Structure formats: C-alpha cells, structure tokens
Please model this.
Amino acid sequence: QVQLVESGGGLVQPGGSLRLSCAASGTIFRLNLMGWYRQAPGKERELVATITSGGTTNYADSVKGRFTISRDNAKNTVYLQMSSLRPEEAAVYYCRATWYELDRGYLEVWGQGTLVTVSS
Model:
C-alpha cells in the first residue's frame, strides 16, 4: 500500500515562509493527482493546492500568489512552498495522493499531517 510522510512543519512568524515535503513510498503505481489540505482547530479540512501528474496546478483563492505546489516524480515527492504566512493559516497540513488500479479503480491515501504554527 502507498504511504505518505509529510515533513517541514514547525513554528514560523507571521509573514514568514515554510516548505513542506510529502514523500510517497511502497508503490509501483503511477501517482496521479496530489494535493495539500489543511485543517485548523474547530474548522473543516480545506483544499490548499493540487498538482496533476503532468504538472498542472490549482490553488485555493486565499493562497494564490503566496503558495507554490510542485512535484518531483522521480522522487515520488510533492512540495508546498508557503510564503507570507498568516496567523489564521496555522493548521495541520495533510498530503493526499491518488492513483489508479485496474481492479479497484481510483484510490487515495492521506499522510499523517504536519503541524504548522504561525505565531510571533
């Protein structure tokens, strides 16, 4: 089964930057859409950014111009570069990946999450 491991979270000041990484392992499958989501205390999990296997990106309106999602298919890794971070963006950030199997169709897996704290 595919496993995702996020890293790079931590404490950053408002206006600061962080780079999150998500490494996939345990698969021979071609990973398709990958994305980053976040969940703050008391709030629903929300989409932050996605990237297709071909490199097409999509962002939540609130992060456009500040966040960049990218992937390295050779390393089975997806990244999220976050700049100008705001206190309200403190959350657990989760990585998600999808792939296709002939017998089961499209499948998904989530990482365990990495905590981002934005505070002075």
